[in-house]
Amino acid sequence: MTGIQLTPQDTIERGLALAAAEGADGCVVLVAETSSANLRWANNTLTTNGAMRGSSVTVIATVGAGEGTAAGVIGRSSVTEDSLQEIVSAAIATARAAGPAEDARPLVEGTTGADWALEPEETSVGVYEKFAPALGESLQRATQQNRRLYGFADHEVVTLYVGSSAGLRLRQALPRGYVSSTGKNADLSHSAWVGTATRDFTDVDPLALDAELTRRLGWATRTVSVDAGRHPTILPPAAVADLMTYLFWQLDGRDAFEGQTVFSKSGGGTRLGDTLSPQPVNLHSDPSLSGLEAFAFAVARTSGGSSSVFDNGLTLAATDWIRSGKLESLMTSRHTADLIGVPAATPNIGNYVLSVDGASGATDDLVAGLDNGLLLTCLWYIRMVDPQTLLLTGLTRDGVYLVENGEVTGAVNNFRFNESPVDLLARFTAAGATVPAFSREWGDYFSRTATPPLLVPDFNMSSVSQAS
Amino acid sequence: MPDIDAVFLALPRVELAGAALQRARDLGASFAEFRLERIRSESISLRDSVLESAKDDEDLGLAVRVIHDGTWGFAAGVALTVDEAVRVAEQAVNIAQVSRPINAEPIELADESVYDDVTWVSAYEIDPFTVPRAEKVALLTDYSDRLLKADGVAHVSVHVAAVHECKYYANTAGTSYTQQRVRIGPDITAHAVAEDRFDSMSSCAPPAGRGWEYLTGTGWNWDDELARIPGWLAEKMAAPTVDAGTYDVVIDPTNLWLTIHESIGHATELDRALGYEANYAGTSFATLDKLGTLKYGSPVMHVTGDRTAEHGLSTVGYDDEGVAGQQWDLVKDGVLVGYQVDRRMAKKNEDVLGTPRSNGCAYADSSGHIPIQRMANVSLQPAPDGPSTEELISRVKNGIYIVGDKSWSIDMQRYNFQFTGQRFYKITDGKLDGQLRDVAYQATTTDFWGSMEAVGGPQTYLLGGALNCGKAEPAQSGAVTHGCPSALFRGVRILNTTQEAGR
User: Fold this and answer.
1) pTM for this one?
2) How many Cα neighbours within 13 Å face the side chain of A283?
3) B257 to chain A nearest CA, in Å?
4) B407 and A393: CB-CB below 8 Å?
5) Distance, CA of A379 to CA of B409 (rounded, Å)
6) Metalloprotease TldD/E C-terminal domain location, by residue (chain A) (predicted)?
7) Three-state DSSP state, A37
8) Whole-angstrom distance between the N-terminal and C-terminal Cα of chain B?
9) Nearest to A132 among B47, B59, B101 (CB)
């Protein structure tokens, strides 16, 4: 394992050549180079940090042809000249020992992308050059002013290279960054949160984040107890993202077809074509969306209901999952598209935009229009309760506010909710414009999301939580 | 005890550690640690008895953590060369320097004995990675077929994850160890689809610190359980919906382990109680000022933490700070008496904790992540001559018996929780009286444990657990076991989940 480190491109060329020499009928090699840097703080001081570099190589070897094709998948971090042969041989041996793959399809053909020869992009702790001192200043200010700050800043760049025996040579680099920040008062009875995705931290100002947290903590000067029950509730874009990301992950076509999700039709089949909402709601993905760019081609290291190792490199096109309230597409591979009877594969895409036709304005406008109800900040610990309706449970946190006559008049206790995001899409009575919104619950994993604020007249706050 | 994997032993671990630690010292680090980790993982999935995916992965890399000018610095890389080890050490010092303006508290660590070049291997029989893939797939296909062929079963999903973790640790105090752990987690679910509804029934087999022998019947009776699952599923599909209300409940260890995990395991992580996790999973109601006085539950509640239980998923010889595995009390006679700590937490709070030593809960899930405090095996102790599950059920006039885990959720301070399960039986006059469906139980942690009237005896004790508990930013995964007997609780709030959905 102490041999020469190969470049990603060489790993792929060498790997494909070794596979062909050993008799594989097809081969895909994925190389992902990752670098990241993070800072974490709590109680106004640093807790942990990290500057990491990682690498992963996945070799997918296929043997046989047509319906008899079998696949073997081996993954390793960092590969050297010496170990590459081992990995390729292991992938081929695995394929030879496996039965025919039910998702087998001809490997995606392609040519060499324009930036194929470029080196991996990198990030480093240098991305925090301005952020770290400003953060330090905000932490000191918080200590002086008897507030407590907690948070996390993360920046990661993944450069993905995909090569195949069918001619594919694709490269794409994606940055992913975010800051998530919580502020509490001295006795920890009140809490507020702000979070945002960022491309490179040039647009993030810790002092401004602190000022916003302080403003919201100021709303808690008056506190009001509200009982459990169904309440008119404004979900700002972040809270909508918390719920919508879970819905997005339920769009698996095969699971729906086999009667296991909210998108299954009773009696058999899927709910494709069904009206989910009378509102003109759209859920849309497009890898080229400005500011939310995602990988432009399918990447799969395992096969499943909506993905296939045979589909690596498949071009991803803009996809409407929900359009004007109707379920338009479910996530499929080429195999599962055939299985469920749709004309083309619509694989998973790494971003989404939820929008309501004709909606404008921001959260503040929804607040101005509400006589009596609640304003949330974000949701947490969201888990499935009943897949049949996509009933989810979770908590409100870090800021539930009372709205009276169009104004925030105080802070309220937290609640446990039980709600289905599918139902909510049909029940909301007001919406704002869609904006990029970072999900507190899922954003560390899935940050390329944009959502509108929504007003739900009867949000089910099932029980009170005394957590703060 | 199995041997340490020869391929791992052939890696230049001592040389790389030496180069990294020396460089860290040269750059002024007052303390430094090195880790070399090789984690092999395998994931096999079948759908309706057909292999859907199978992946063999290996994560191999090195990491350095330093204390420099009182500040942590962590860096990681993948090339196993002296140049890389030196570079990673430099990166660790560099990020410590960049972080200095944000650090208000100089890092001090609780002392620990020095362990010079020790070795530890977890208890298992058959390394899953030595079993031919075809043999594993054949066994899983057989298990899947038994369910798929049964009446009322429309679909079957089978998934097995296996992990083989090798770790070399060395620090500037002179401790070094080589450690190997094997763990495995099966998930088998039968799905039924009817005209108006669908539902599922999963095997209750917990993940375990065992090898492939677990899947062939050592530690779990697959033949028996698989034969019963279709019948249980059919009963559930035909079961009446529960009336929401207040009931006495008997909870099987196959469900209660998760309640322990969420409401005791996480609540007694000291870093959480002190606020260090506030931006992510939250804090804890069990704050340090309540140590020794907080009434966590009824007097029959005795909860321990350990990293020593045989086959425990959190069991180690030594943790990721070079601290030896231990066992201690978290809750005794219903009162909070302990926490799970790492060396920094232990040192900072030694006066209140009453001990100068870490209890060894530091863990990083891979070389690419920083060690943090992770959950030990947290277990509710059985009553030495305690009752059987049937005996506990016989004490209930109107109640519900809850088996197997499913949905879970708890709030940011570990107060308000809500759980469902795999199957629920009505208890009427001390006897099981058919299944119910749409059941969830919801409570506040200390009220719930305060309502625990009795725990079962050792004959009801089972090691439940999870392979993938999440914590920290960036997110890390941890495997943990919870030993648990059956237990009886009075007056628990039961929800009807279809009513919660507004139907």
Assistant:
1) 0.95
2) 27
3) 18
4) yes
5) 12
6) 229-462
7) strand
8) 56
9) B101
The conformational region for residue A212 under phi > 0 = left, psi -120 to 50 = alpha, else beta, is alpha
> Would you say B78 and B87 are in contact if contact means Cβ atoms under 8 Å apart?
no
| Shortest distance, CA B103 to any CA of chain A (angstroms) | 5
Q: Which of B100, B201, B412 to mutate to test the interface with A (most CBs of A within 10 A)?
A: B412
Across A403-438, b (16+ Cβ under 10 Å) vs e yields beeeebbebbbbbbbbbbbbbbbebbebbbebebbb
pLDDT confidence of residue A455: 98
Instruction: Classify burial at B195, counting beta carbons within 10 Å of its beta carbon; exposed 0-12, middle 13-18, buried 19 or more.
Output: exposed
Q: Is the pLDDT of residue A3 over 80?
A: no
According to DSSP, the residues that pair with B462 across neighbouring strands are: B484
Q: What digits encode the pLDDT tens for the residues A296-352?
A: 999 999 999 999 999 999 999 999 999 999 999 999 999 999 999 999 999 999 999
Give the span between the Cα atoms of A218 and A216, in whole angstroms: 5
- How much of chain B exceeds pLDDT 90, in percent? 99
Strands A352-356 and A449-451: parallel
> What is the rounded average pLDDT for all residues in chain A?
96
Instruction: Say yes or no to pLDDT of A82 above 90.
Output: no
pLDDT attached to residue B310? 98
Give me the total of CB pairs closer than 8 Å, taking one residue from chain A and one from chain B: 284
* Residue B381 near residue B251, CB atoms below 8 Å: no
Chain A residues touching residue B416 (CB < 8 angstroms): 395, 416, 463-467
Write down the ipTM of this complex.
Answer: 0.92
Residue B258: what are its φ and ψ, rounded to 5°? -75, -35
* Residue in A with minimal Cα distance to B57: A75
Tell me the chain A residues in contact with residue B62 when contact means C-beta distances shorter than 8 Å: none
Q: Give the Cα separation of B391 and B385 in Å (integer).
A: 12
Residues 6 or more apart whose Cβ sits within 8 Å of residue B142: none
Could you read off the pLDDT of B90-109 as tens digits, one per residue?
999 999 999 999 999 999 99
Q: Assess whether pLDDT exceeds 70 at residue B303.
A: yes
Look-up: residue for tokens 């942990």?
Answer: A48
Chain B contact probe: residue of A418, A427, A447, A460 with most B CBs at under 10 A: A418
Q: How many helices (H) and strands (E) does chain B have?
A: 12, 22
Whole-number percent of chain A with pLDDT over 70:
99
Looking at beta carbons, which residues of chain A come within 8 Å of B472? 40, 48
